[in-house]
Amino acid sequence: MPRLLPLFPLNLVVFPGEKLNLHIFEPRYRQLVHDCLAENLTFGIPLFTEQMRELGTEMRILSVEKTYPSGEMDIRTQGMSVFRIREFFREAPGKLYAAGTIEAIPDDNTPDPELRVRIQHCLQQLYDVLGLRQLLQRLPINYRSYDLGHHLGLSTEQEYQLLAATSELERQEMIAEHLEQVLPILLETERLKERARLNGHFKNLTPPAF
């Protein structure tokens, strides 16, 4: 059922489950936060590039960490679910901030176990090459594709495509394909870097026996 949702457009993709810290300084968004807190409302963050995109993530406010004398605020938020904007309003009725008539997008969260193993193997190689193995250790045990979204080197447009997928299986397929494309390039880059480091050095090489 379509409903009206306050909107906070940003030039970034937020995934369901993601925690996002925001510094609120514009009067219209300070009003949005006050309304959400007073009326126990959620708000939406749609992607805004050259124009408003139709998909966004519904957010809930977890806490207000700091309020400044100027009225600015630091807030903690978390993504909940993906929505599609049916009608956009530059101002909600009687408000300074934008709003939209939105509808929820159904999602199938069932993962494919075999794809998960493929992705895990690729991730281990990727983070080893980049020296970022600690990122893998920070992931939840039953992590979803959304938890990987910002750690794969995706462009904003690719992250938006991941947000647009309506099943975990589809997201897994996108991630596996991306990793299997970029890994050979990264591995070759590291090999070339290693060769460049060895140039000019004395090498203790064992010739073949023949």
Automatic annotation (TrEMBL):
Residues 4-181 form the Lon N-terminal domain. It holds the Pfam family LON_substr_bdg. It comes from Hymenobacter lutimineralis. InterPro entries: Lon_prtase_N, Lon_prtase_N_sf, PUA-like_sf. This is Peptidase. It comes from the Bacteria.
